[in-house]
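User: My collaborator and I are trying to settle a disagreement about how two of our proteins should look. Neither of us wants to argue from intuition anymore, so we agreed to look at predicted structures for both before our next call. Could you fold the first one, then the second, and keep them clearly separated?

Assistant: That sounds like a sensible way to settle it. I'll keep them separate. The first protein:
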Amino acid sequence: MDPHSRLSQFNQRPPKAGPAALPSRQMMDTPHPKSPSLDGFARRPTATRSRKASASSGTLPDAQRPIATNERIKQDERFRKDMYLAFVNNALQQKTVGNTDPYDALIDQFNIKKMATDGPSPIPQLRLWLHALMHVVSRLDRTHATLIEAIVRMPWMTMDSSLVKTYTSFIEILVSARPEYLSLVLGRIAHGFTYQSGLQALEAGLPESSSAPLTRRTVYDRIHHLLRHLLALVPTLSSTLQPLLAQNFPHKRQSQAAQVTYIRNILRVSEYCPEIADKLLSTIIDRAIQIDVEIQVEIEELEASGAAQEQAELFELDPFDVVVGQEAESDPEDDDGSEGDAFSDLSSDAGGQDDDDAPPVEAPVDVDRITEMVNKLDAVLKLLFDHLDHPPRLTTTPALPSEPPTPVCSRSGT
């Protein structure tokens, strides 16, 4: 057949076939591909699924609520501070022109007795008022002494710790800018160390927000903390502080608790301000001597009353031994009386005998007072000797929790 013919067998194409088969050993060495798994797939976010679900259902997603960010909270806080500052500036300006109504309203903000007990806590407002007054403290001259007195007399030591920090900062700025108020502040601090002042603060103050009960120790710790800050700020104020501490010393006839409380506080003051320690110890010793002298006077009076009573009983004569003719001189009413009167005189004499026995009933009262004063003297001497046995070390005084430490007031005034 003609090879160029269309019907030639050489013109037919070979059928298509796959690749050549591999040997069986090579097929065994080739790894099999892994089956697909869900472990490698990331989980789709819920928002995407919810968005798709809402799109498929034909409904739009709910509008998201605005979130109160820190920046927004700070803006609100700045706005409130600006409002309080504007009121303070207006009150001071109106006072200069003769209108004292805004100034009086500002003073009432620091009067705890006029605050509603069933309303919200006034502590946030008091902090804002103090922050506003910090900006105008240079304008608070002597004509604004009533405002400063209202702030100083406020029972700040019984309130929240945040207000205590704000109050401490305000007093520091006030004393630095206006030294004329230093005596007022120190006088209030010295009075705060007394037992009666602590009792009044606990009764008139607002309760703390913490669950722990407020104790006298906490109140006195806060006062000492403020005084340490002032000593670090004005080292020369110790000369003004010492006379005020001596002036507020409780009277010798006050209770043992009043004596012990004040002595413990001023001994603690001598630890972080040793330049007045000698004068404070002298004041305590002088008060102990006064109590001891009072005890001696009471004992002498008691012994004198007992000796007079014994002497009267010793020289009392028996009526049967009276010389005849002297009855009229001793008892002139016997001649005019009848027999019934004589019996009444006898009864009255018996009553007089009972009256003579009355003074011994008062003796236990004197003994109780003397015993109380002796116990008071023992407590004072014990505090004094314990302090002398363990003298304070001139180191950094411990500060209140979460507050920076304050350096000790040294003798050199630095």
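The second protein, kept apart from the first:
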Amino acid sequence: MSEKQKSTISLALLKETCDAALSSVAAADGVVPDDLAHLQTTDFAVIHKDFISLLAYLYSATTKTAISLKPTSPTYSASLSPLKDLSTNVSNLSHNVRLVQNAHGATVLKELQLAARSVISAIQGLAETLLSDANATKEPCDAYLSKVGEVHDAIDKLRSSTDGLSSNNVAAARKVWAADQSSLSDALRELQDMPESGDDDGFDDGWDELGIDPSSSKLSPEELERLRKVESIVKLCNLMHKTVMKRVLSAPLHNAPIQQEINPILDLLANDSPTLPAAVDDLIATVYSPQDKGEMLDQLHHLDGAIDNIKSHIDSLFALEPVGELLKEATGTGKKAPDVKRWFGTCFEEIKKLIAQMSTTLQDVQ
């Protein structure tokens, strides 16, 4: 068997290994399979460290494979060792994800699944391209270089010191909330930038030619009053969401001695986070003229439910005795921070009061 044939077989094996690894990663459910039981650990830090180490091995093996299988001047014999390393460590990466247990947290498990999938899919893409080059009858191109770049970029992102792989479930939940915060900030800007009248300073935007009266978007005094009320609600929702990240999903919680009790609540909070900007967006959509008071009332009720869920899970977190004490730490400004539990109690109460007041007003005018 020639060296080229051996290399081609190794590439085909790598592709099959990636297929199997992706299926294994997708099947990860927080329960360690029997064939990996001898490797399981209660310490997520060990799993995290091993995952990062495997990324380094995969990065190096990808580079060596790319150099040895450069289409214009391949050295097939030199490709066999890095291709074997790639297959071995792709499998190891999927095994690493399967070692994450329910006790470690569903949110960080989901993040590891996405991380492993991004790397393995990129390596699979590289293997497919190199296989295609090996079997090509015409002169190969440099498409493989972009595939190498995809592998390196996926790994670099996960090894980043600022936005890399989360070290625990607290960090993973905070990452989810941080991603959703931008949506809430955008929603608030949308409200604040919303035109309050049909005055366009004589600018011809072409609506007349389409048979649409631009003055139909003008808010009546009553509609403008509702816009202001919605804006007050959204401002408080935005502040509450930011404060969850700053004061709850914060460094002190990483050191809580009862992570197994905290993690299920963090998973619920991670699921809660995207429901808030979605509910806010749906409410804002009802503010545009002409306003449908019934639809606005429905969306206020929807938002109220989202707030109730977040409040319930924040309360459950504070009900764990060590958590309340940990989160009383100073903000780092040298001043003692307000009692965080009391702050959230007041904030939730105010949001729900504003929603209730506006709902009552809408019901009265229907």
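Some points you might bring to the call about the second protein. Residues 39 and 99 are 7 Å apart (CA to CA). The radius of gyration is 27 Å.
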